[in-house]
Automatic annotation (TrEMBL):
Residue ranges of the region described as Disordered: 1-24
Keywords attached to this entry: Cell membrane, Membrane, Transmembrane, Transmembrane helix, Transport
Main location per the UniProt record: membrane
Family to which this protein belongs: Belongs to the binding-protein-dependent transport system permease family.
Organism: Nocardiopsis codii
Signal sequence annotation: none
Record-linked PROSITE patterns: ABC_TM1 (PS50928)
Residue stretches spanning the membrane: 37-58, 100-123, 135-155, 217-239, 276-295
Pfam families according to UniProt: BPD_transp_1
Localization terms from the record: Cell membrane
Protein name, entry field: ABC transporter permease
Compositionally biased region (Low complexity): 1-21
Residue ranges of every copy of the ABC transmembrane type-1 domain listed in the record: 96-288
Membrane-protein topology: Multi-pass membrane protein
Amino acid sequence: MTNVAGAPGAQEPAAAEPAAPRKGSESLHYARRNPKLLIGLGIVLAFLLLGLIGPLFVDHGPNEYVGPQSQPPNGEFWLGTTSFGQDIWAQFVFGVRTTFLIGVFGGGVAFVIGTAVGFVAGYKGGIVDEILNMITNVVLVLPAMVVLIVAIAYLDARGVFVQGLFIGLTSWPWAARAVRSQALSLATRDYVDLARLSGRRTGKIITTEIAPNMSSYLVMSFILLFGGAILIAAGLDFIGLGPSDGVSLGLMLESAVAWSALQFGMWWWFVPPGLGITVIVSSLYILNVGLDEVFNPKLREL
């Protein structure tokens, strides 16, 4: 996991508002010069664009039988066809869209729960912190993949958002603990004490005084949760517990294995989805490392 605890956005007090524009322009300057950030962001955006626009140029469904069986890549079928004559290119572009949907939704659910628990525990402290920390530790030690397999296996109909919801409900504890540690530090700052003495509500203090000073940390945490949700979803898809009414990169791999694509030398069936998952997740982590170097002065390459 990328170390994001040193991000200056999570430690600089909001009282230094006059320096905010300068710090923003400085971060933008280093962002433009950071190859990891530019490469990671470029690849992620390219796949996102493919998932959004690609399906618009496919005139048939991803699971329709539209061509000859076991056809290698050619001018008509760019990624070939399956053993049943399905267009693998169509499955791939729809699968990329599903990958981003599951990443955003599953990672988003985990992010919302984790940050809410972490902020409240870190700001409130005392008995509230102990109770929330206990709940976090209980969920943290649960075998998440086993819980997901059991829960999803008993559902009659499985969709992208149901899968994402279960992933989010089991992936938030580490984010909660990380946010809590940062919130504990910021909660003792003078500007937070002044806001508390002025009679502001807890939610207002957290959203206006604490969270803005952790913005870079929160962005990087979401990226990690995003990538983690994609990997968990791919694992569930590969064992046959993916969406029952759609297509995903993980389900493409599962179908390729189930119908012996490797044994028959049909590399065009399993290489694109496997490579797609690997490249997307790797790019997210490269992007995260680049952001860490931009926001953390100690890691910047001069």
